[in-house]
Amino acid sequence: MTNNNLFLICPFSSVEPFIRSKYGNENYFLTAPAGYFKFEEEPYLQEVRNFIARNNPDNIYIVHDTSCRFLRAVVSEQEEQPEVTVCKPILEVFQRNRHAIMEAPDTEAKVEKLAEYSMVQQTTHWVQSQVLGREIKKHGIQIKGLITNRQEQACKEVEINLMMD
């Protein structure tokens, strides 16, 4: 495996050590609750663009762990969602794909489905951003998904196929 990856992780999921054990220590990490980043903040986007230009990662991985409390709360359709702004985009993804997600046989599979749909939405935001999209395309960076399950010491890469024109 390459060691020049950028992993987008949730700071609450504590997956960085697990990812390092699987992908090596020479990778980069950015954190945001549930791995959702604020694309409306121009200074932040400029910093991420500068980071990408300096470090030229081969891949950007959007990471979700199956134990993520935000994903689990949405899938279980709890009356009281965690009071975190990040739940709003997750809930929107869930509502758009509810039928496909709820067809999954158990909670774990539902969380994985929601994670996959969320990764596609997040990738769309990354590539559509004028600031980041150009940089990602210029460097030929692949955006991938990674679903981790620390309880089972497993991870599954998810190919995200979006046109980058």
| Radius of gyration of CA atoms, rounded to a whole number | 15 Å
Helices, by number, come to 7
Average pLDDT works out at 85
Oligomer: single chain
- Shape descriptor reads globular
Q: Uncertain segments of ≥5 residues (pLDDT<50)?
A: none
The helix/strand order is: EHEHEHHHHHEE
Structural class from helices and strands? alpha/beta
Separation, N- and C-terminal Cα atoms: 28 Å
Q: What proportion of the residues form beta strands (DSSP E)?
A: 15-25%
Describe this protein's structure.
A hairpin with a 4-residue loop joins strand 4 and strand 5. Helix 3 runs parallel beside helix 4 (87-96) and helix 4 (87-96) crosses helix 6 (107-128). The longest helix has 22 residues, at 107-128. This protein has seven helices and five strands. Helix content is 45%, strand content 18%. It has helices spanning 16-23, 42-55, 69-75, 87-96, 98-102, 107-128, 130-138, and strands at residues 5-9, 28-31, 59-65, 142-149, 154-159. Strands 2-1-3-4-5 form a five-stranded mixed sheet, covered by helices on one side.
